[in-house]
Description:
Elements: H1 3-6, H2 11-34, H3 41-63
Helix pairs in contact: 2-3
Amino acid sequence: xxxxxxxxxxxxxxxxxxxxxxxxxxxxxxxxxxxxxxxxxxxxxxxxxxxxxxxxxxxxxxxx
Length: 64
């Protein structure tokens, strides 16, 4: 997910996406504990998506 695409969403939609990605990351961490993660690169991707979403939220707050 690119920051350019995220800027098209409203703040509420971004917060919902953030919550969903956090749930996905939590589920992936649970799989890690069990030792059966198919794609370990997903950890980095999800964390980067969270950072992008939070950045876009902060940008929108500073504009207003």
